[in-house]
Amino acid sequence: xxxxxxxxxxxxxxxxxxxxxxxxxxxxxxxxxxxxxxxxxxxxxxxxxxxxxxxxxxxxxxxxxxxxxxxxxxxxxxxxxxxxxxxxxxxxxxxxxxxxxxxxxxxxxxxxxxxxxxxxxxxxxxxxxxxxxxxxxxxxxxxxxxxxxxxxxxxxxxxxxxxxxxxxxxxxxxxxxxxxxxxxxxxxxxxxxxxxxxxxxxxxxxxxxxxx
Length: 212
Prior knowledge:
This protein has 7 helices and 8 strands. The protein has 212 residues and is of the alpha+beta class.
């Protein structure tokens, strides 16, 4: 079924959840309960899946129109939905980021046409923050946008000089073409190693049943 959504206006809070799952069947069953997000004021979309490198690690990405709508949901309905997954995971990390700009024009927080999501979580040296963002716009974004199979993405920021780069890809095979020598060349050009204090990345195999 296709659910109507309000037009995407660029004002978005991005929520990233990562956890280690100890009861996969129970976790997946509980994940389907998040369909209850539909109809929540300010909700824009949610999706996720399993890490391709660590099969026990799950990632979930949620999008909200604003922090106010998100806070309202957390105060009212969150615990009722989350209770279905109690005891099925450990080591949960939850981070909130403010949308800064798109990685490719026409971004929408939807997952139905994507196969994998590449997530890069960067902590940037304070004095290099603006350079890092500028290089994302001038070097990394055009390179990703021009790659076959890259659908769309978002660049978001959190306090503490933390950034999240999400890119959605039509298939893991197409995403696999965007790496190796090309990534090394782009990294040198953008001075990425000078900008970044810490980097954690993953490739997430999306599960259609988790898409809301």
